[in-house]
């Protein structure tokens, strides 16, 4: 077993090639929060087999690893991540349409996949057109918006399981719930996704996408870096309203701020650090509980804080 992570570089180079390996890569370049210290290693595999080989090598040598999509739901520590970040993005972003079905790699952006659906007059994915994440991440957390969610259109997922085996899992075995799935709880790595859509009218699909885009621009703080909705929706109410009712609209810690436009968003209002965001989240959690008795659970994922 490799005791020193510094000795792991040759192993990674052998798997993905030197051109696909970066060292001390600033994670602020790879998250929509624009926050995060350096990843010790940052690899960009060319295919699912390489993803599996990297993960297997990390497990064998006791090296921490993390799968990164678009970084749209992620807060990385200011110290960074002393492990291997495995990027599944445009490098694994192919989308194929056959009839009313789509087969896409996990790195395909939701917006890209929705545009392909539109181009083939397929309806059912309009809700996802403005979600700034990858298909793999969306399946992992059963992403959704405006009444739609991934569970409504997924047919199957091809994923790397905890034993390093690549297997296809039908939708009825994914245990898709509100911002969770068996993929997330079981530590799977999504590689490909099958979607079932329906025939529709191209103009109507486009109009619905434009309508949802207008709503996002109107209601969400898209002019500031953020990780989207910061908190999960508590049962029976909305996180944003609880935060607003607690008097926290515009509340600020350093460069991190509760959005004045939508209180459910924590934004990077100017050179925010991960520590700023964590302190703000903790304050919001405490104050909302004191005011309402409701406990808010973060929707954002955290990386590098246990290092």
Short description:
With 307 residues, the protein is an alpha+beta fold. It has helices at residues 9-16, 48-61, 110-119, 135-140, 182-185, 202-219, 239-245, 274-292, and strands at 21-26, 38-43, 65-68, 74-76, 81-87, 95-98, 101-105, 122-123, 144-145, 148-149, 154-160, 166-170, 189-196, 198-199, 226-229, 252-253, 256-258, 265-268, 301-303.
Strand tally: 19
Radius of gyration: 20 Å
| Mean residue pLDDT | 96
**What order do the SSEs take from the amino end to the carboxyl end, as H and E?**
HEEHEEEEEHEHEEEEHEEHEHEEEHE
Given the helix and strand composition, which structural class is it?
alpha+beta
Largest sheet, described in full? 5 strands, antiparallel
Strand content: 25-35%
Provide the spatial order of strands within the biggest beta sheet. Answer: 6-7-13-11-12
Discrete helix count? 8
Sequence stretches where pLDDT stays below 50 over 5 or more residues: none
**How far from one another are the termini?**
19 Å
Choose one word for the global shape.
globular
Helix content: 25-40%
